[in-house]
Structures are given as C-alpha cells and as structure tokens.
Specification:
The chain has about 425 residues and is of the alpha+beta class. It has helices at about 5-15, 30-35, 65-75, 125-130, 150-165, 170-190, 225-230, 245-250, 280-295, 315-330, 345-360, 380-390, 410-425, and strands spanning about 20-25, 40-45, 60, 80, 85, 90, 100-105, 115-120, 140, 190-200, 205-210, 210-215, 255-260, 270-275, 300-305, 305-310, 335-340, 370-375, 400-405. The strands form 5 sheets. Strands 7, 8, 9, 10, 11 and 12 form a 6-stranded antiparallel β-sheet that branches. It has a 5-stranded parallel β-sheet with strand order 15-14-17-18-19, with helices on both faces. Strands 1-6-2-3 form a 4-stranded antiparallel β-sheet, with helices on one face. The structure holds guanosine-5'-diphosphate and manganese (II) ion (MN). Manganese (II) ion binds near residues 197 and 210.
Length: about 425
C-alpha cells in the first residue's frame, strides 16, 4: 500500500527527519489561498500516488497567495500521468543552499536483503542517474536484516553522499543521521520502499522535500499504530506506477498490463507479440502459450508483451482501442488475437478490429500483422461481416488473418501466426 506524500512525511517526521512545514491539504483553490496566508514562497504538490509529478506539472512553486490560488486553480481537476488531482499539499518552500541527495531503502527481490541506495545526484529520476552516471550511486545490501542500520554501513553511505555534495564532510554527520532514520523507518513500518528524493541541503540541515513510502501489505496487520497516526481506518489498494499503455487502457476502460518495463530496449533479433485475447483466462493462457511456442519452435526468439482483458461485453469502439494501443506500441511486430465469444460477441469484436485497421490504413498509421481466431456468440453474422469486409477493402485487411470457428486449436493458430511473421521478416 502506497502512502501519499503528506502521510509519508508524517512518518519520517515522527522518526526525527526534518520535513517542510505543512500548511494544509486542500481540495479547493480558495482553501489554498487561506493556507498560504502571508507567506512569500510555497510549494503546491499534487497528492497522487505516482512519481515524476514534477515533470508533469504536479509540483509548483508559488510566490505568495495570489500566484498560489491561480496555480491551484490550474492544477486541481487536471490529470497527472493519468491520475486526477483532487487534493493539493501546500507547504512552505524549502530554501536550499544547493545540493540535493537521494536516499532509498528497498528490498532486493533476488535475495530479500534490505538494500540502501544513496546518491548525491538527487532530485531527478534515480533510474536515469543509474544509467548515465552509475559512479554517483552507492548501493549497500544489509544481509543480516538488522532493525537499525549498522554503524559502519551508515558511515560509509554518509561519507559517499557528503563527498558529492556542497559542504563536504561537514555534512556527513547530519546525512548519516538521515540515512539511519530512513532505514529504521523502513524496518519499523514493514516497508517495501522508503525513499527521500530530493533531500535538500539547507542552512539548518537536510530537509526531506519529497517522501515516498510503500508498505508491505503482508505487514499491515502489525501496523495499527501507523494507521492511527495517519487517521486511516482501512487499507488502500496498492497502486504501482502504471506505464503509458496502462494509463491509456485505464482511461479507455479495459484491463491492461505491460510485461516489459517502460524503458525496455527492444532486442531486434526477437519477435514481439501483442495479445488481444477474449477474457482474462485466455489472456494468461496466451502469454504462456506464445512464450512456450517461441521456446519450442522458434529458438526462444518470441516475446509476449502484454496482458489484456476487455471484461464482458466491450463496445466496438473499445475493441478498436485495444488494437490501436498495440499498433501504437513501437516494439510490437505481430498481434495475436482470440475471441472466444461467450458473454462478448464475435460480431462486435470483428467490427472493432476491421474498423481499426481501415482507419489506420487510411490515416497512414503503422499496422502490424494480426493473426487469430474467433468462435462463439454471434459467429454467423461476424463471419458474414468479415467476408464482406475483405471483399470491399482487401488492401486494408491484407495482413489480417482470422480463422473462423474452432476447426483449429488456438495453439496451432499461434504457431502459424508466429511462422507467418518470421517469414515476412525473412527469418529462419
Ligand atoms: P516528484 O517529481 O513526484 O518526485 O515530486 P518532488 O516532490 O520530488 O518535486 C519535484 C522537484 O521539485 C524536486 O526534485 C525538487 O527539485 C523540487 N522541489 C520540491 N519541493 C521543493 C521545495 O520545497 N523547495 C525547492 N527548492 N524545490 C522543491
Ligand atoms: Mn521526488
């Protein structure tokens, strides 16, 4: 369960870490004005359970009340990376003397060791720092899982931070205290993630300008005290950071999960397969089957990219959007689809697919081959529509191969589809 920034800051403050002075959590611009009062500089921060708000306009600095009200009016009701902004955290702005650090504690999923990561290059996406200047990151695994950070590790982490920040070793003591407190909070509250980015250096010492805490749902039963502190009565559903595709699918109203990371670099020797299945069960089956057939018959060179589920009874427009999303997703080389019409209609499905292909061809947008099978409800009218569509616009539908009825099992359809895509690429 992920905490909101204001909640995570309450937790860190309770552990003795300095945080900016909170002026209020506001749902209306006029409340923001009241919270700001006569202060000269404040931060307005969208309370949404997603990172990277700064770049998306979800963190704004206002010089005084009037500007705060006008910025708040703009921010409230907008969406930040797919999340509606319903509340703003209003804080006194931290005046930094230069220098922003990253401190993160998490668990290494490979060996369950608690891992502390620090960087003097804070304030930006830490993944980016890891890619571009890995020497600016120190990562320490704490194998014995102690409740408090061992002294030697704390000193090493603080010294590394201090050496890359203005103020140098004079800062080491204060930084060591913060690293130790973030670690202790991680352990005490059964966290999956406890992170400060950025920790800003000020004349009065380091201040956590941003805070992120993700609680381990399995430990929530031990955290009644934390729930009381935050005024929570029930657990919130866990929300992990959605990818662009996942945000798009959510807005269109269907379930979608990317199997590749947002920053995945495509392996050009492999075939990337997008899946538009009928139903969640078929969706999971297709992922395994595409991967399995790829391993058995195609030298492991086939990569399924997504899970998708329309839910019962999608509209033609929704089916079209499901295909559109995958056509727009650059890594995809082939789409495999299976409509097993029970609740959903084959007729709606095929109209959605054909409409999508025609529109994209006419607009000159990218398409990839679509191979699949449909069987079930409304099959006769779906078959008739498909045959007519192919007569009317053969060019637009030349790369669409839909087997009608169940004379072929899906595994066969998948294997033939991959073979077809390999042949088109001239691959063995
Ligand atoms: P995120 O983008 O969702 O991680 O949101 P942050 O809370 O980290 O804010 C984005 C950026 O705004 C930070 O990296 C800082 O550079 C800046 N920022 C946020 N709060 C303050 C503040 O109080 N003072 C100053 N000077 N900068 C801030
Ligand atoms: Mn941040």
């Amino acid at each position: 369960m992920r905490l909101y920034e204001n909640e995570a800051k309450q937790v860190f403050a309770r552990e003795g870490i300095a945080v900016p002075r909170a002026l209020g959590v506001c749902e209306k611009a006029e409340d923001v004005g009241r919270a700001v009062g006569e202060r000269a500089a404040v931060m307005l921060k969208a309370l949404v359970l997603i990172g990277g708000r700064g770049k998306a306009g979800g963190v704004r600095r206002a010089a005084g009340r009037a500007e705060a009200v006008s910025l708040a009016t703009d921010m409230l009701g907008r969406r930040i990376r797919g999340y509606p902004v319903e509340r703003l955290l209003v804080e006194e702005a931290v005046e930094t003397t230069g220098g922003a650090a990253y401190i993160g504690v998490t668990m290494n999923p490979a060996d369950f060791n608690v891992t502390v990561i620090v960087s003097p290059a804070g304030g930006v996406d830490i993944e980016q720092v890891a890619r571009e200047s890995p020497d600016k990151i120190l990562r320490v695994e704490i194998a014995a899982n102690e409740a408090t950070l061992p002294e030697a590790e704390a000193s090493r982490l603080a010294a590394f931070l201090a050496s890359g920040l203005p103020g140098g070793s004079a800062r080491a003591g204060a930084l060591k205290a913060v690293v130790s407190k973030v670690y202790a909070a991680f352990q005490k509250y059964d966290c999956k993630v406890a992170e400060i980015n950025p920790l800003l250096l000020t004349d009065a010492g380091p201040v956590a300008a941003d805070a992120k805490i993700v609680l381990d749902d399995n430990g929530l039963y031990r955290q009644a005290g934390l729930f009381r502190l935050l005024g929570l009565t029930t657990a919130r559903h866990d929300v992990s950071e959605p990818t662009r595709n996942e945000v798009r699918a959510r807005e269109a109203g269907f379930k979608y999960v990317d199997l590749l990371a947002e920053d995945h670099v495509k392996d050009l020797s492999k075939l990337y397969v997008g899946l538009v299945p009928g139903g969640a069960g078929y969706g999971i089956f297709s992922i395994d089957e595409v991967g399995g057939i790829g391993d058995r018959f195609f030298g492991g060179r086939v990569v399924p990219v997504n899970f998708m589920d329309s839910g019962g009874g999608p509209t033609v427009a929704m089916v079209a959007e499901m295909f559109d999303l995958l056509f727009d997703y650059e890594p995809v080389d082939l789409i495999i689809t299976s409509r097993f019409g029970g609740i959903s209609s084959c007729d709606v499905f095929i109209r959605g697919l054909v409409g999508c292909l025609r529109e994209r061809r006419q607009a000159g947008k990218r398409v990839v081959p679509v191979v699949g099978r449909m069987v079930g409800t409304d099959l006769p009218s779906a078959r008739e529509f498909l045959e007519r569509a192919k007569r009317e616009t053969p060019a637009e539908l030349e790369d669409m191969h839909i087997t009608v009825g169940n004379r072929k099992i899906m595994a066969e359809v998948i294997r033939e589809g991959i073979r077809y895509a390999f042949d088109r690429k001239g691959w063995a």
